[in-house]
Task: structure prediction
Amino acid sequence: MASQVPNAGGQPLASAESRHNEWLSPGGAAYDFRSDVRTSPTPAMLEAITYASLLDGIQDSDPSTKKLEEHVAAMAGHEAGLWVVSGTMGNLVSLRTLLTQPPYSIICDERAHFLNNETGGVFAFSGAVPQPVRPSNGKYLTLEDILPHVKLGHGEKVHAVPTRVIALENTLRGMVMPLAETRRICEFAHANEIKVHLDGARLWEAVTATGSSLADYASLFDTVTMCFSKGLGAPAGAIVLGNKATIRHARWVRQSIGGGIRQPGLLTEAAFVAVRDTFEGKKLAKTHEVASRIGRHWEACGANLLYPTETNMVWLDFTGQQFGLADVIAKGKEKGITLNRDRLVIHYQISEAAVQILMDVMTELTRS
Ligand SMILES: *Cc1c(COP(=O)(O)O)cnc(C)c1O
Result:
């Protein structure tokens, strides 16, 4: 029996348009605030898949994948790029590539995605010791937060594990790390023979919010990962950026964890469209406006936000309210929108109708 869930498949594809229209129906991406990974591939992406190169992408990148890698590397001020199947794989490949000879440790924000949400893969595959740091401003790490944790690796203190990489994340919980602070940390690291990695899964959002370019941020780092499947809306994939030697080695690491894909063009053509239509097509700024409007509405209802709304995320604080997260989820579900936590993520396919429902739910609950 055919499923009633939008995009559940199980039937021949009538047309890209009709498939795409499924996300406009309640229950589809247009009504889903759980994450920006809930976007649905557009007709343009589905069409791009049909003209993808069908060549092998393991030893060298196939033409479709090469086009994407070169385009994004150029935009981000790096020599080369390597497509990987996920942001998780991108962080693993990047960090494994930067770390050469143990003992070594990685300094990161204690909330870092690769520390908390990637099943420990980076540490399992590299043997690195994590050095988590809490940002004193509650938003992003500063050089002053990092300095007391740095172990310079000159070998004189044999008990300490030397810091070989500082890994930053931007955006983190939807908040932007300012360019000036990013530059200070990277300059300190490089002056002390420490490598720097940027988990820029949502760097697209940070540069949209600040008006900086991708290159302003990305070129400061030895390696960078960026996701195509979050706010840009591609079905899968991420990229690792670095210089040619780094990317050559990264291809080896990718292969060692089974990340080589035979015909990646089917996915990379869709990702190319996502970069072109969503990022270069400037669709992200609108999502920040919507997020800000929702955040302001929540505050106008007399409630607080856990974090400021700087990009596409709204963080709800329930302290002091007569209702909780479960009530928002239940009332939202009743009215046709999908939420799952205190974090609301706005993506470019969220409909105005869904935003209205969400704001009405907020009004109703804070009033009662
Ligand atoms: C989503 C995300 C990742 C991992 O990306 P996947 O494609 O889901 O594996 C890594 N870092 C950050 C900051 C992310 O938000």
Observations:
- The mean pLDDT is 94.
- The pocket of pyridoxal-5'-phosphate is lined by residues 86-88, 91, 113, 169, 199, 201-202, 227, 229-230, 238 (CB under 6 Å).
- The radius of gyration is 21 Å.
